[in-house]
Specification:
The protein has about 300 residues and is an all-alpha fold. It is built from 11 helices and 2 strands. Strands 1-2 form a two-stranded antiparallel ribbon. Helix 2 packs across helix 8. The termini are far apart. It holds the Pfam family BPD_transp_2.
């Protein structure tokens, strides 16, 4: 592989890594703060893309308004699910949360499928990028789509901003306290339930944002998150369950490694991340950036 080919694969991998990073960050926020394994995360990613598409078809809203509104709508739906359903399972075995979110995945996918067929008469649909981000940029070694560079940059910015808020601000301190020791936090007059709902909303909102960003690259269709979420769970495990920074770094790294691996030996493309996960778990069961369970 030439240096030029390697650099092209790195940038292609960073695009996929941007989606892995946003999705795994949302999962890490939810698990790290709430100890919930949200299997519906892939469906919420798809819902973000579908919402952007629907806003355009029904109200004529373009990419930029949808980029703001769709993640907010997904976050609101997520908070309603947390208050109405998930909150009733706190204190029970984690398998109940897993089964509920798996059921919500199937329900969401079928509902979107029926809406797309009945309302828009399509099973999948393209979504155009904004005019300002059309065309390509000369990177010196290749011409690369301008929109994909935007995806990499915005994803990195959002991931770093989320990490900073949770780890370095007073709001983040309240969030961590509300989930790690809710009894003491309530003693300071803080409504823990509202913070828990908000954290869940942020996590699924990140999935919705990833879906909007993915819509112009992939077709909007009901099952677009099904395969991606499996790889995203592997990314979270490799980075360390609940590790915010680990999810971001591992998401981008896995995207790049998968792209390079696929270029060198295509048959390994779909299994490379799982091979990496197995190796990491053998060497460090808590993940690359995770803390052992007893030290939490």
């Amino acid at each position: 592989m030439t240096l030029q080919s390697l650099l092209i694969q790195v940038f292609n991998g960073l695009v996929n890594g941007a989606f892995y990073a946003l999705l795994s960050l949302g999962l890490a926020v939810i698990f790290g703060m709430l100890r919930i394994v949200n299997f519906a995360h892939g469906a919420l990613y798809m819902l973000g893309a579908f919402t952007a598409f629907a806003l355009g078809q029904l109200f004529g809203l373009g990419f930029w308004p949808a980029l703001i509104l769709a993640p907010i709508i997904v976050a609101i739906i997520g908070m309603a699910v947390e208050r109405g359903l998930l909150s009733r399972l706190y204190g029970l075995d984690s398998s109940y949360n897993l089964l509920l979110t798996f059921g919500l995945t199937l329900l969401t996918q079928d509902l979107v499928k029926q809406v797309m067929l009945s309302k828009f008469a399509v099973s999948s649909a393209p979504y155009a990028p904004p005019e300002a981000l059309s065309g390509v940029v000369n990177l010196g070694f290749t011409m690369f789509p301008k929109y994909r560079l935007f995806v990499i940059g915005l994803s990195l910015l959002v991931c770093l901003l989320t990490w900073f808020i949770i780890e370095k601000t007073r709001v983040g301190a309240i969030i961590r306290a509300s989930t790690e020791n809710p009894t003491v936090t309530r003693a300071f007059g803080i409504d823990v339930s509202k913070w828990v709902t908000g954290v869940f909303g942020v996590g699924v909102g990140l999935a919705g944002l990833a879906g909007v960003l993915a819509a112009p690259i992939y077709s909007v269709e009901p099952y677009m998150g099904a395969e991606l979420i499996i790889t995203t769970f592997a990314v979270v495990v490799i980075g360390g369950m609940g590790s915010i920074l680990g999810s971001v770094i591992t998401g981008f790294a896995v995207g790049v490694l998968a792209a390079i691996g696929a270029a060198i030996y295509p048959p390994i493309a779909n299994t490379l991340v799982f091979i990496l996960m197995a190796v990491v778990l053998l060497v460090r069961p808590s993940g690359l950036f995770g803390l052992p369970e007893g030290s939490r």
